[in-house]
Amino acid sequence: MFDFTFHNPTKIIFGAGKEALIGAELNAAGITRVLLVYGRNSIVKSGLLDRVMASLKAGDITCSQYGGVDSNPLLSHTREGVVLARRDKVEAILAVGGGSVIDESKAIAVGALSDTDVWDFFVGKEVERALPVFTILTLAATGSEMNGNSVVTNAETRQKYNIASPHVYPKVSILNPELTHSVPLNYTAYSAVDAIAHVIEGYFTKKPGTHLQDRLVEGIIKTVIETTDLIMAEPGHAQARASFMWTATLALNGLTPAGIGEYSFPNHMIEHAMSAIYNIPHGAGLSIVMPAWMKWYAAKNPSQFERFAKEIFGLDSAAAGIAALEQWFVTIKSPVRLGEVKIPAADIEAIAENAEGLARQWGIGGLYTKETIAEILRLAV
Amino acid sequence: MFDFTFHNPTKIIFGAGKEALIGAELNAAGITRVLLVYGRNSIVKSGLLDRVMASLKAGDITCSQYGGVDSNPLLSHTREGVVLARRDKVEAILAVGGGSVIDESKAIAVGALSDTDVWDFFVGKEVERALPVFTILTLAATGSEMNGNSVVTNAETRQKYNIASPHVYPKVSILNPELTHSVPLNYTAYSAVDAIAHVIEGYFTKKPGTHLQDRLVEGIIKTVIETTDLIMAEPGHAQARASFMWTATLALNGLTPAGIGEYSFPNHMIEHAMSAIYNIPHGAGLSIVMPAWMKWYAAKNPSQFERFAKEIFGLDSAAAGIAALEQWFVTIKSPVRLGEVKIPAADIEAIAENAEGLARQWGIGGLYTKETIAEILRLAV
After folding, report:
1. A65, A82, A270, B100: which could form a disulfide with A111 (CB 3.0–4.6 Å)?
2. Residue A1: inside a domain
3. Radius of gyration of the CA atoms of chain A, in A
4. Is the full-model pTM beyond 0.95?
């Protein structure tokens, strides 16, 4: 165990139909004007937007709407959102969508209270304040509904960078698992990969010996696998969708790394570089990177990889555990090779160069150079 | 999974020497006058009180001291604390001690802002506000440092009752595991029993099928057993003390029951009745009640008891799992029979009658009557 501070003030309201409470929650926080941020038209077609607007109206809350968030949210769209938030003098951002919508909403919340360009905060400027963020989650995956992270892509510079700040934890996040029943199975698979990726970064890159945290991670991974298998067989499996949703939240809310000391996010680093260049789903990128990285990294922490194999799959060797995870990704139809998402091997150098910039920013440039990142990616050809 | 709200706003600061931050944390919250509540002289002798006072002085915080909290905190002492808090117009309560000190501090925090007797809140009056509570934890066990519970004993009426309110979550809790190195092994054992008791109540009495929460509980129990065994062999085992401390916090901070639906606290109910009459340590009472209750209850939820045996001890039957837990309590020298704490079998009726009052208050009077509680207790003779 290492020193840590844990402070996660987000209020989670979990259950069917709970989006009807959003007006009352905003009222309780004294908020009268919001910017409602969303992605594509699915929340219009499904009727969710109408239900949310009805709740806002009942709470006498003025609402500006701002749709069109991309699945890898773009800086350009974020900047426009900042302009809107300022113009309409909103007091809070209400994100209705998945992790991308929430991430962009957090960035808008930061930009709205700043005099400088919002991208400054992604390249090192410290966040000192933000508008309060409220969320209604429609896709379980990124954990953004209960953490202080925001990832946005600068298309001009091809940088997919992040903010991590206590000021952008959502005040209230409403998790209605029924909203996820219609998530297509390919995106459900990518979400499962993402949740697993969130917990294995710390699990494998920390120092050994923090068994409580190991067990929390193993419980999360086993539940992700179990519930995803149930959903693949029956997409409307209510219990599995609900359990999956809460598990994905716990996978990146600060619980599993508390006390583990230093660790790093190499898989996310490489994937961010990939999806900054190719607009592929984050989870699809991760299922390609993870088995490759695990093969490359296993010898640096053999006991933990053996533990993983035994606890998750009941297998006897690190290699067998990695192979089992890769095979599970294949089973749920998430890609495991670059070619499956049409990234040619010839582009590895460009991805590695992009990732190297992130490695330096994240303080792991010693281990992760252009050369070693390329070596990892070649294991995914 | 069932609907739930999870909102745990307590900030945890974990690590050696972190009590030195208390002045700064109170400053950050704008607090200038506190009532410092503690138990016996051990925090004076150990130098902890001096270190805390130095931090308060550096933060220019006025402090009234109030010692003498009992291990089963008494209503009479709580009432005196309320008088002091009002007299000195304190803006916060600072608890320095274990769960008893924190529980009494929460009650004082409620009483200080109320016109009526503080006991009213233990027998049904709703808590609407409380002074902010800050804690420096010296004994890992009750989880009070990160939850909204407070248990106080009314010696006149022999009632050990509780408050559960969002208003009494500590604002900040400082967990320095080094402060627990000197906890005697018998109290360490009682703490281990308490932490296990906190998670098994929900684990066994909920409806089956919430596997994520099952796995979180199993991870907590396995870690409690593993770290307690290490501490018994080496009381100053820093890693084990640290891991034990955080595990005990997670055992009752709302994480494990989130989503499990209805459940009950029969073991705590019976133990509260026991220690309301006999002033025995809470954990010692629980290690007597738990195996008896498990033997009595196992047939009502056989698959979960089989799961417990397999996951925790690698055993094949419910009965073997219960026997293994009881045997482990014996190994760590926590009592498992009433006679070990000098409660005669003839007193079972009186305990059962007291517990029946709690059962009604907690809404489980259907299953737990004077007769069934006596039946359970007879299994501990």
Report:
1. A82
2. no
3. 20
4. yes
Report d(CA B145, CA B160) in Å as an integer: 19
Same domain, A171 and A202: no
Residue of A11, A210, A239 lying closest to B1 (CB–CB): A239
Nearest CA in chain B to A4: B14
Total domains in the fold of chain B: 2
Please name the amino acid found at residue B195. Answer: A
| Rounded Cα–Cα distance for residues B227 and A139 (Å) | 38
Asked whether the beta carbons of residue A243 and residue B13 sit closer than 8 angstroms, the reply is: no
Would you state the structure tokens that stand for residue B79, as one six-digit string? 């009432």
The neighbouring-strand residues paired with A95 are: A37, A135
Quote the DSSP letter at residue A74.
Answer: B
Rounded to an integer, what distance in angstroms lies between the CA atom of residue B171 and that of residue B22? 11
**Interface contact flag, A246 B212, Cβ < 8 Å:** yes
ipTM: 0.96
pLDDT tens digits along A342-378: 999 999 999 999 999 999 988 999 999 999 999 999 9
Same domain, yes or no: B219 and B256: yes
